[in-house]
Amino acid sequence: MESCCCDLQVDVNGEETFMVDKDGNEKIISSFSGRLSKLFAKSRSTVNNFKVIFHDFPGGGENFELVSRFCYNNGIIEINPSNIALLNCAAHFMEMNDSVSRRNNLLEQTEKSLEQISYWSWSELLVALKQCQDLLPVVNSSGILQKCLDSLIGRVALANSSEASPYPSNSSPDSSGFRVSCDTRSTESLKNSYSRVTWWFEDLLVLNPNLIEMVVKSMISRKYDHAIISRFLFYYQKSKFVTATSNEKRKITESIVDLLCFLDQSFVSCKSLFGILRVVLSLNIGKGCRNKLESMIGSQMDQATLDNLLVPSPHGCNYLYDVNLVLRFLKAFLSKGISKISLICLRRVSSLTDLYIAEVAPDPSLRPSKFIALTSALPGTARESYDGIYHAMDMYLEVHAGLSEEEKTKICCTLNYDKLSYESCIHLAQNTKFPSKTAVQALISQQSKLKSLLQETNHSRSFTDSPCSTSSNGRKGEKDDSQEQIVLYAGKLDLSADNQKLRAHLKGMQWRVMELEKACQKMQTQMAKMMKSKTTSHSNAKSLPKLCS
After folding, report:
1. What is d(CA 501, CA 416) in angstroms, rounded to the nearest whole number?
2. pLDDT in tens, 194-218
3. Which region among 54-63, 178-187, 226-235, 453-462 has the lowest average model confidence (pLDDT)?
4. Residue 35: phi, psi to the nearest 5?
5. What string of DSSP letters covers 72-119?
6. Which of 234, 236, 374, 409 is least crowded, fewest Cβ atoms below 10 Å from its Cβ?
7. Distance between CA 349 and CA 357 in Å, rounded?
């Protein structure tokens, strides 16, 4: 072999250039690296001086220097948790395997060292993981990252299921992965700082969102407690935001929202989701991420509060509050199907929605179409009473006095008159802010309810043996006549006539309805006593006619 003194230049990622003596050091390095051996073999027959450029060497110039030391030291180097990921990735990159050196190849040494991972301390494991995140995505293909993740999750799970210390002993290969801590002060500190299930939260703050995503997905695949995972994700988001830039906050939020979607939503805090939503409003979050967040909140609308829903409207909107956001929440809540929602949850959401409507009704900028959308967002079965909707409408019509009769009528179409209380019906009939036709419909509905109640009462009375049955039948006829009169009276009203005259007619109808209600209440009381007396002696039944007087 011809002897000459030439230099080999190795440019590592544009960071640093290493000079290698081609006669001496070339043979040493190439004897451990298959990649360099192939390059030297190709260049030997063409040029004496050449430069090798590595654009994506894992760990940069600092790691290349470690690899060089390994080669110059005859394949010997100290491998520990702080450099194992770097050396392992470099070994893969430089092809430092048994195909080049069967005895002292770097890849085999790092893999053997990794077999001792169960004896690493908790802090050493975190150091190795932190190093892995700096080597992504190269470290994914090496397998070392997955082994570190498996060890981390295994320790968290074991520590949460036992009283063992999360910090394993390093004393000897014979020691187990976990030992009960003998350090009293350390144990007390751990108990004072964290609960047994959340002690690891703060330690994992050193990991970036990409690695946290891997940790959480591994936990989910291992059936780890979703409640603890969700608590950790909210803790991570809140803690990292303290020092994060706007761009970092956006990335963290998008990552956290994506991970929360994988969890059982019954274990995800609705309050914390609203906390993230408040942050999202000030960040340029992607539409997809925002839709996921709104969907999760909507699925838990029964856990929300009025304060949660009072989100200021976005820039450029005249509304006081973001009504469209609440409408999207309600849509998400109903998306799973009304048959799959319990009546308790449905009623709770309807009560919350009524409170929200009452809060936004006085907003002078709220268009009628949005108000109607809010009042009709839930199905009729969701509400036991429409009194709240009526009072919200009353406020809305008072603030929006300039609405046309047609617009007012459209707004009132969402009222369910059958679910209005007697007091609300009477108030509506006297309310000049509402269209006259609406007042008539309310009274007719109230009269219809009383008629049905009277029929039920009379039907029940037909099964009793009461001496006052004849007298009550006479009164029944009188009440039926009154009912018919009210229906006819309402039917003959000329809605195009003067409003004052119409209000006078309505007052007459109100009086009739009040008389019917009093009679109905009296009959119900009488029926209750009669049903009790049915099982008593005949002498007790003789006192019943007195009640009919």
Report:
1. 26
2. 567 888 999 999 999 999 999 999 9
3. 178-187
4. -65, -50
5. HTTS-----TTTHHHHHHHHHHTT-STTT-SSS-HHHHHHHHHTTGGG
6. 409
7. 12
Residue 415's CB is within 10 A of a number of other CB atoms, namely 21
Give the whole-angstrom CA distance, residue 310 versus residue 375.
17
Q: How many residues does the chain have?
A: 549
How many CA atoms does the CB half-sphere of 412 hold within 13 Å? Answer: 24
Query: CB neighbours (10 Å) of residue 504?
Result: 10
Structure tokens at 243: 């020092």
Pull the structure tokens for residue 40. 């030297």
**Those residues with Cβ within 8 angstroms of residue 313's Cβ, 6 or more apart along the chain or in another chain:** 319, 320, 321, 322, 323
Residue whose entry in the numeric block shows the structure tokens 């509304």 = 319
313/304 Cα distance (integer angstroms): 18
85-136 pLDDT, tens digit per residue, is 999 999 988 888 877 766 778 999 999 999 999 999 999 999 999 999 989 8
What region, left, alpha or beta, does residue 374 occupy, with left being phi > 0 and alpha being psi -120 to 50 degrees?
alpha
